[in-house]
Amino acid sequence: MSAPILTVTHLSASIAGQQVVEDVSFEVPATGITAMLGRNGVGKTSTMRAVLGLISRKGKVLLAGERIDGLPTHRIVQRGVGYGPEDREVFATLTVAENLALAERDSKPRREFVAELFPDLMARRSQLAGTLSGGQQQMVSVARALLNDNRILLVDEPTKGLAPKIVGDVARALQEAAKIVPILLVEQNLDVVRALADGAIVIAGGCVVHTGKARDILDDDALTTRLLGVSAEVHS
Amino acid sequence: MSSIVLILLTGVGLGALYFLVASGLSLIYGLMHVLNFAHGAFLTLSAFIGWQVAQALGTASWGSFVVSILVGAAVGALFATLTELVLIRPLYERHIEQVLVTVGLSFAAVALFEGIWGTDAVNIAGPAWLKETTEILGARIPNTYWVLMLAAALVLVALVLFLKKTRYGMIIRAGVENRAMVTALGIDVRRSFTLVFAIGGAAAGIGGVLAMHYTTFVSAHLGATLLIFAFIVTVIGGLGSLTGAAIASVLVAVLQQFANVYLSGTGDFIVVVLLAVVLLVRPTGLMGRKA
């Protein structure tokens, strides 16, 4: 097994003095999609934001063996950590083209790859991102992370609030993306997790309580119900 | 009819002056969430230095007038840049301390200016045309107002082009909307902070030199007097919105002029009432975005 691309050790984080991540340790392999699962409010989004330095944090974070926990957010991203945040966070008053241009860091950004993956966005380049549908905004969010030669993508609830057809489109885009870059995915839609994820990390009470293959967790209904509070029956 | 034209156009001219001060305030708050109380000091220093340059070159010539404006812009930009680098940056993300340090700087600057240039207002002079008037629909409009309008229009166009057509402009627009997400794209947003301070300082510097010609004097308190109305304009326009600042500048100044003439000199009071109404009815201002 190859060395992990991301290693998180004893990570804790707080927002305005309130502890939101207790003591999280996990590894993300250098290939495929790893799902971060857990009930609402257990600290999945906060863990991602803590890895990126967007919230105050303590602990050790290694990217391909190099410590990044002491770096400011923009330096962490420059080292190759792409981010697709929860609720998309596209710049509503900027056009699609401006949103994408702002994200370009590399001298040769992957414009063709993104254009092939999201042809609909290319047709809407001059449209203000705030006027796009939720699914289209999600595509902008993922496209921003894919433009650069990142070493890992942190993607937070990409299918949240989307129509079933759009969920499929976003899942397919992530599947394509995973062929060129490993992804740490926070996702509540277990059908999507089943379709995409290789490994899974389960968080409860601000700590990692289970790691393993995603399918093994989702196939064990008792385990899924205990860890996630929901049944993982396939809905297709 | 002529009196209405006079009030309207002098209102627009005064609004142009407010905009020159408010544009920087609005951008600085929008991007950095810092209410910059030192903005008036940028304006005052630019006016004093601009006046000294004009005196050295000969106050009556247009050349010295233009050079004094350019020097004012440069002084404002330099003072603002140093303020951001030395006082604001070390207090990154500590908004209350940042505001307090600008308050302290504004007091210290006034004391310093009084120490250098004295406590009395200094009467100034400029090209003779500025003291003349131009007749429009029977109203005799002081020429200073045309210069104010032209300068504000040029600054507005330059700012809009900068914000729309350059990468830094794009970063600033995005940062006003969601600063954390800009950093999450790998961009060091703090570089833009210095730039926004410099741009705001330059606009205030131009405003300082022109305010001096508008009032025909310069004093250590010139900036503080204008800053109050610039803050009101910034809040009414919507913190962070350049377009809002432009619209609110004209709206506030025209209303102020009309109230001064038709409501027994209550212009300042009416402006404060307008501020209260906007805060009650539309707290984000005319063009502001919800937090």
Automatic annotation (TrEMBL), chain B:
Quote the CDD domains the UniProt record gives.
Answer: TM_PBP1_LivH_like
Gene Ontology MF: a single term: transmembrane transporter activity
Q: Name one GO cellular component term.
A: plasma membrane
For membrane topology, the record states:
Multi-pass membrane protein
Where is this chain's protein located in or outside the cell?
Answer: Cell membrane
Write down the superkingdom of origin. Answer: Bacteria
Q: Which UniProt keywords apply?
A: Amino-acid transport, Cell membrane, Membrane, Transmembrane, Transmembrane helix, Transport
- Annotated membrane-spanning segments are 6-27, 34-53, 65-87, 99-117, 145-163, 193-214, 226-254, 261-281
What are the recorded Gene Ontology BP terms? amino acid transport
| UniProt key word Transmembrane | yes
Tell me the Pfam families matching this sequence.
Answer: BPD_transp_2 (PF02653)
The protein's predominant localisation is membrane
Q: Which family does it belong to?
A: Belongs to the binding-protein-dependent transport system permease family. LivHM subfamily.
What name is this protein filed under?
Answer: High-affinity branched-chain amino acid transport system permease protein LivH
Source species of the chain: Microbacterium laevaniformans
Where is the organism placed in the taxonomic lineage, from the top?
Bacteria, Bacillati, Actinomycetota, Actinomycetes, Micrococcales
